[in-house]
Amino acid sequence: MMRIVKPRVLVVDDEPGVRKALQRGLRAEDMDVVTAADGPTGLQLARTGSFDVVLLDIMLPGLSGYRVLERLRAENVTTPVLLVSAKDGEIDQADGLDLGADGYLVKPFSFVVLVAQVRAVLRRAGPDASRGALKLGALEVDRALRQVRWDGHEVPLSPREFGLLEVLVGRAGTVVTKDELLRAVWGEEQAVTRNLVEVYVGYVRRKLDAVGAGSILRTVRGHGYLASDDQLDEVR
């Protein structure tokens, strides 16, 4: 059975101190945190659908938080979004909620309150929140139908192969270790070793190669495996 590892949070804020503090604090709360410093980068990361919640500042260089949220919802990315802003006006909050935000935090905020809001959003989203499609370039992992498509063409995978690719694309742009893949895909099965992870990565890579998607799945020697593409490489 697939094991959910950690809630994955995207923090989009142009203030380095805020990004660092939130990354450190949320990791201490056992969350997997990725940060972005501007609107276009935040949009590119969030549209993969691989995050459980997005903390999105409104005043961002390149593209405002409002516009990032608007584009995500227009693209049917349903990831919960908590808007963060120094503006505390009712109209600002109403605008954000009307665009599809799931909450609104006013700076300066209590970290305890922020964590409580993040956990509340995750609870409201429930277990079905992870059933949305993941997208990485032309690769789509449909978690509800358990299907994988590359440029519209189906890629046949076994249940274990699908589980492995789901974990890697679900953490796109982040290196996933063999031990993490073991826990997520094989759970507590006693006979499973790290070598089996290598074998299944090989199976998945060959099937992706066959449809021209071989560059998506990469080995990071000494660390683990990474799902990424050229666009995600640029924002990383």
Automatic annotation (TrEMBL):
GO biological process: regulation of DNA-templated transcription
GO MF annotation terms: phosphorelay response regulator activity; transcription cis-regulatory region binding
Residue ranges of every copy of the Response regulatory domain listed in the record: 8-122
Pfam families: Response_reg, Trans_reg_C
DNA-binding region: 131-229
Keywords, sorted A to Z: DNA-binding, Phosphoprotein, Transcription, Transcription regulation, Two-component regulatory system
Family matches, as CDD domains: trans_reg_C (cd00383)
Stated name of the protein: Response regulator transcription factor
Species of origin: Amycolatopsis dendrobii
